[in-house]
């Protein structure tokens, strides 16, 4: 199944969801009218990550540790898989007894930057199905983080709740 297969990265809304067997992946395309270096910093600097995603600790090298904490309640520890400034940043995210992969790819585009976020290896019938609306809501806060402004946690969760119904049920 593919949803929104023809995405214009400048006008993207929902992520593209593809399923295969008991797994799925979600891909988001976004355009930011900011230099690639500023977008990279918002994705890889712990202070900027906390503005739009979660509190973070990053060992900025392949094999390094990646730790995220959301609102002091949910914790994730994975490992950095790719670190190629300012183009590629990927890490493993253990979820539903799987090692899922989060991958950010950046490409300069004129005065701006194209971002592709792929989260793959997710369980169709697990907790990972919530990452679709979660990533979408968090990405909505990335433009502010690029400019050094934080999005309040309550706004992130309200966005996610509103977006959740727009993503289809993935269960068999």
The gist of it:
The chain is α+β, with helices and mostly antiparallel strands and 172 residues long. Helix content is 24%, strand content 40%. The longest helix is centred in the last third of the chain and has 12 residues, at 153-164.
Describe the structure.
It is a single chain. With 172 residues, the chain is an alpha+beta fold. It has a single domain (16-164), classed as START domain (Alpha-D-Glucose-1,6-Bisphosphate, Chain A, domain 4). Helix content is 24%, strand content 40%. It has helices at residues 36-44, 46-52, 131-139, 142-146, 153-164; strands spanning 16-20, 23-32, 55-58, 65-70, 74-84, 88-95, 98-109, 112-123. It has an eight-stranded antiparallel β-sheet. Helix 1 (36-44) crosses helix 2 (46-52) and helix 3 (131-139) packs across helix 5 (153-164). It is globular.
Tags for this model:
172 residues; alpha+beta; Alpha-D-Glucose-1,6-Bisphosphate, Chain A, domain 4; eight-stranded antiparallel sheet
The value of Rg in angstroms is 15 Å
**Total count of domains:** 1
Strand order of the largest sheet: 1-2-8-7-6-5-4-3
Described by strand count, sense and barrel closure, the largest sheet is: 8 strands, antiparallel
Give the overall silhouette. Answer: globular
First CA to last CA: what distance?
12 Å
Percentage of residues assigned to helices: 10-25%
Could you state the order of secondary-structure elements as H and E? Answer: EEHHEEEEEEHHH
Question: CATH H-level name... which superfamily?
Answer: START domain
Mean pLDDT reading: 89
Q: What structural class do you assign from the helix and strand content?
A: alpha+beta
Q: Tell me what the CATH architecture is.
A: 2-Layer Sandwich
- How large a portion of the residues is in β-strands, by DSSP E? 35-45%
Low-confidence stretches: 1-11
CATH topology: Alpha-D-Glucose-1,6-Bisphosphate, Chain A, domain 4
């Amino acid at each position: 199944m593919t949803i929104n297969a023809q995405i214009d990265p400048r006008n993207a809304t929902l992520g593209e969801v593809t399923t295969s067997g008991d797994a799925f992946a979600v891909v988001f395309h976004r355009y930011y009218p900011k230099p690639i270096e500023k977008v990279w910093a918002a994705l890889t600097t712990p202070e900027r990550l906390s503005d739009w995603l979660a509190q973070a600790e990053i060992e900025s090298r392949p094999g390094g540790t990646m730790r995220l904490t959301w609102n002091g309640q949910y914790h994730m520890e994975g490992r950095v898989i790719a670190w190629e400034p300012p183009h590629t940043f990927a890490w493993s995210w253990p979820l539903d007894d799987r090692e899922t992969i989060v991958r950010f790819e950046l490409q300069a585009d004129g005065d701006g930057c194209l971002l592709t976020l792929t989260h793959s290896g997710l369980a169709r019938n697990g907790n990972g199905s919530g990452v679709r609306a979660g990533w979408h809501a968090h990405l909505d806060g990335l433009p502010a983080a690029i400019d050094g402004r934080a999005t309040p946690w309550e706004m992130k969760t309200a966005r996610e709740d509103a977006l959740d119904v727009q993503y289809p049920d993935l269960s068999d």
